[in-house]
Design a protein that fits this description.
Length: about 240
């Protein structure tokens, strides 16, 4: 039972530390989506970090872009080998491609615009991928397949559908924490090799028939955040 501000016993509502840790286990915590938790996080940051550290997790907070998330400790960050709490999931080639294209588009946006939020329509997202689709594609099938990959990226927390809209998405800046220049460079190399193989074999490259490249992003243990519908907290992009 918590203590109220007047010194009397309060309700059975969990304390701030519990609420913060619970939300972070569900997925990323965003300043604009979790206003009631962001200020407590700034005050309780050290306590939260100490609390999750005993589980082999690290609290990452970006106060500039306004997000926080948990990730597993990397090699060399601890002498203790903790069991992995944050699951890893293999992504299809096209999902990885779309993540890379969104990250590049965000980089271009930050270079050329003074706006803070990158908003893309569904058609704009389709156009990013269309360059890599066969010329004789079925547009309806292509749209359905890319919608599936958009949904997957929503679940990872990198895209957020705007409230009241069916086809407008914000590219979440948390994508920068997982998709860095090294990842993009390595993916570009794999993409070139893949396209060379496709051209040489005259293979079907429709988004529905993606090969599994083994690219993976780790997601948070619980598939739910209010920041992105049914979203998980993503961890490392390797």
């Amino acid at each position: 039972m918590s203590m109220a501000s007047d010194g009397t016993l309060g309700s059975n509502r969990p304390d701030e530390l519990s609420l913060l840790v619970i939300q972070l286990f569900k997925g990323p915590l965003y300043r604009d989506s979790h206003e009631k938790l962001w200020e407590p996080l700034t005050r309780q940051r050290r306590r939260v970090a100490d609390h999750v550290a005993v589980l082999g997790l690290r609290l990452e907070v970006d106060e500039t872009d306004g997000y926080a998330f948990l990730r597993s400790l990397r090699d060399g960050e601890s002498d203790i080998e903790y069991p992995r709490l944050i699951a890893r999931h293999t992504l299809s080639f096209t999902t990885s491609l779309l993540i890379a294209l969104l990250r590049k588009r965000l980089l271009e946006f930050d270079t050329s615009s003074s706006e803070v939020r990158l908003i893309l329509s569904r058609d704009q997202i389709l156009d990013l991928v269309r360059v890599y689709a066969p010329a004789n594609q079925d547009d309806v099938k292509f749209g359905r397949e890319i919608d599936r990959h958009i949904k997957r990226i929503e679940e990872l927390g990198f895209l957020h559908r705007l409230r009241g809209s069916n086809d407008q998405y914000e590219v979440r800046r948390i994508i920068r924490a997982f998709v860095d220049a090294q990842w993009l460079g390595e993916f570009d190399q794999r993409l070139r090799a893949y396209l060379d193989d496709v051209v040489g074999a005259d293979a079907d490259t429709s988004p529905g028939g993606d090969p599994d490249t083994g690219d993976d992003l780790a997601t948070s243990a619980a598939p739910d955040t209010s920041a992105a519908p049914a979203a998980t907290g993503a961890e490392d992009a390797t």
